[in-house]
């Protein structure tokens, strides 16, 4: 009997994992059913204002649609072939890339230095933080018009303060540089806030232990601060790349809605809008938008892939 019990007992216990799996499935189903009501409004709005426009734009990119919405006919890949063969597209993409290469490193370094200053300063911390972050609260049109006046060679302060005689906004070599300076002043506050929050989350006992071991200020920054800010630095770089590639507002406002001297400040977004709302070529503009969407998605996915690889390497 004992041998029979030994053989039969495991068979009697085998259904238990199935019951446990059913119980887990029941709990997950119940949670999904309850949570679905909270997620449903977002999914509806996401589908209505994101997925539907993307799908509509993708379809229009294969047509010769105009802004009136009439005479829409399928043209296949003609819009994409024209876009890749058009030098204006590559010029505008080059301007956006040039702007990005100038802005992103400067913003990362400047935001980090400002965050270090605001974090270690002892008096009037709130005032320093307010001064560094306040420009980010201004609308793009206000920032653009303000710096358009500052760069004015006749009445602006930039030339008078530094003793220059540079036509910043009417000269090809300096027009994009003026947009870069404006963007740095206007948007550095957001990255500054991210760095400041990350600095405040670094445990103080790490610095205390390093100081007891004889580490100086530079060594503490290199071996503690910078490694602890690695993730937030990657986030700031990614966000700034995505935002810089989409530059439009300040460049257009500072050039009075024009492409700048010798079209030197025409960005990719501005070129897309010109084709869609000035040339009335909605189908062609949609193709350009899809190309730009793929470019932005590639940058975001590349950042996610690098982050995953780094996490796997740490493990």
Walk me through what this model shows.
By secondary structure, this protein is mainly alpha-helical. 77% of the residues lie in helices and 0% in strands. It has 14 helices and no strands. The protein has helices at residues 2-13, 15-60, 78-85, 87-120, 125-133, 140-150, 157-162, 172-200, 204-212, 217-228, 230-245, 249-254, 268-278, 282-314. Helix 8 runs antiparallel to helix 11 and helix 11 (230-245) runs antiparallel to helix 14 (282-314). It is flat, with a radius of gyration of 28 Å. The chain starts with a helix and ends with a helix.
Total DSSP helices:
14
Strand residue content? under 5%
Radius of gyration (CA) equals 28 Å
Fraction of helical residues: over 70%
Provide tags for this entry:
single chain, about 325 residues, mainly alpha, about 75% helix
Task: Summarize this entry quickly.
The chain contains 14 helices and no strands. The protein is mostly helical.
